[in-house]
Amino acid sequence: MTLFRFTTLLSLLLLLVPKQNAIAQTSIYGSVALVNYDFENNNTSAAKGDTAGFIGGVFYDFPIQSRLTAGVDVRGSFGVGSRGGALAAAALRIGFVPERVVLRPYFLLGGGVATSTFKINDITGPAAEGLTPQSTRFTSGGVEFAGGLDVRLSDSFDLRAVELGAVAGASNQGVGSAFLDAGLVYHLHKRSHKL
């Protein structure tokens, strides 16, 4: 193991080790979203177009006494109408909590499953090859990337000002999803952990 890898690993480990009076936080959120589902086939992709949707989830921040937070985020989303679909994902959540500023940026890295129906009239181009006039449901797993900005309103509520993310599906034949959303975050009571 090189010195750089060892130093990086040690730094991350020290960052994630709970300290005295560290606080764990569980939060739930709901958002309205603009969602796009795309079909990936023959190493090309084609999207059906944007549709309205909803995203709901919960995240848990581990008890770390630091400006950086680390936790787990689990979410589900639903896009309405014929261009809609569904998504379920779990991710590592890294956030930054400034001392005197109400802005709280974060990013997610994880995995999920997206599903949607496609037919020959929904999309055009090489990705439509092999589709039929009847709707066929496709489901595939993929990597989730997302980033956003929460604005602290009170100890209990944040405004999710913006979140942008995607779940990239398999390139041979699968479903991907991209989303842009805004909503509210409710923080359940914090729990202090003394070591």
General form: elongated
- Number-wise, the strands total 9
Q: Tell me, what is the CATH class?
A: Mainly Beta
Number of helices: 1
Report the structural category: mainly beta
Within the largest sheet, what's the order of strands? Answer: 1-2-3-4-5-6-7-8
Radius of gyration: 19 Å
Number of domains: 1
What would the average pLDDT be, to the nearest integer? 84
Order of helices and strands: HEEEEEEEEE
Strand content: over 45%
Architecture, according to CATH? Beta Barrel
- List unreliable stretches of 5+ residues: none
Q: Give the distance, in angstroms, between the N- and C-terminal Cα atoms.
A: 31 Å
Describe the biggest sheet? 8 strands, antiparallel, barrel
Indicate the percent of residues in helices.
Answer: under 10%
CATH domain topology: Porin
Tell me what the structure shows.
By secondary structure, the chain is mainly β. The protein has a single domain (17-190), classed as Porin, CATH 2.40.160. The chain has one helix at residues 3-16, and strands at 22-41, 44-61, 68-79, 85-96, 103-118, 136-152, 157-168, 173-187, 191-193. A hairpin with a 6-residue loop joins strand 2 and strand 3. It is elongated and about 55 Å long. The relative contact order is 0.23. Residues 1-24 form the signal peptide. This is Outer membrane protein beta-barrel domain-containing protein. Keywords: Signal. It comes from Tunturiibacter gelidiferens.
Would you kindly provide a brief summary of this structure?
The protein has 195 residues and is mainly beta. The protein has one helix at 3-16, and strands spanning 22-41, 44-61, 68-79, 85-96, 103-118, 136-152, 157-168, 173-187, 191-193.
